[in-house]
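# step 3/5: fold
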Amino acid sequence: MILITGGAGFIGANFVLDWLAQCDEPVVNLDKLTYAGNLESLSAVQADARHCFVHGDIGDGDLVTRLLNQHQPRAVVNFAAESHVDRSIHGPGDFIQTNIVGTYSLLESVRGYWSALPADQKTAFRFLHVSTDEVYGSLGKDEPAFTERHHIEPNSPYSASKAASDHLVRAWHHTYGLPVLTTNCSNNYGPYHFPEKLIPLLIVNSLAGKNLPVYGDGQQIRDWLYVKDHCSAIRRVLEAGRVGEIYNVGGWNEKANLEIVHTVCALLDEMRPRDDGRPYHEQITYVTDRPGHDRRYAIDARKLEQELGWKPAETFESGIRKTVQWYLANPDWVTHVQSGAYREWVQTQYADQ
């Protein structure tokens, strides 16, 4: 049994689905179900006895302690986080509360549980903390990619709150001996991504005939990682990662935002042409850049490859094609997310739980 926090969010839900497709080990899934937590993403495992969903907050120490003692997990994988940079700029308080205070509370609950385990279970236990490359700050055009030893230099309230949580995880290992692992990933994309983020927003707005907003000149560079590759990396780190270590997870796909926009437009031209025959890129509009917008992120994932033998299975070209196909094939999921109807779905499907 493993305990997953934030398992109804984008990456967390993909991880739950991927985990249960790969093995029979049950999961307890704790999620607060904020706006981006969507149990409809987990409808395929609603009736699966291996998946136990619990609606709750990682900051609720009594609840977390009760779940740990009841289910006796061999590992905790922490996805729970507020993660949207724009939202953090307009309202940083939620990010401080969830990403810093919540992580602290979770660590304390886990430490109490782990300390009382028998010696063999204590040795085998792992706490895996999922973080982001944004904690490293911004890179110049020709600077080498982020390694695990890069200075922590966050530039947004979101990345600062994640950097703080990373520091807490490190400190709980060095001070208390808690057997932790940390992963810092690049920009994820793929199925079940909430349409406030770039790629799903492009798809949704294109199909609705709306503008495709591009910040500034659109030359901000990110490394793009298909979410299912991220899931396989986390499984591998959980399986064989060295305790106390950080592992960067990247897709080796540095792309400028404007290139991403044109790629998505071209795929939609091919798969779902506009009724008027015009290209989707005509909907691109440039908007004022956001404050403190980092210019470039790039992940050096060689440590993960050299130590644990992990490499991404998808190229950007294959992953983005699968992503666009998924959104075109699942319009109801998109409609429910945009309207908030998935919250009604949760009430209907999980009223008795």
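# step 4/5: annotate
Residues 37 and 49 are 21 Å apart (CA to CA).
# step 5/5: archive (pending)
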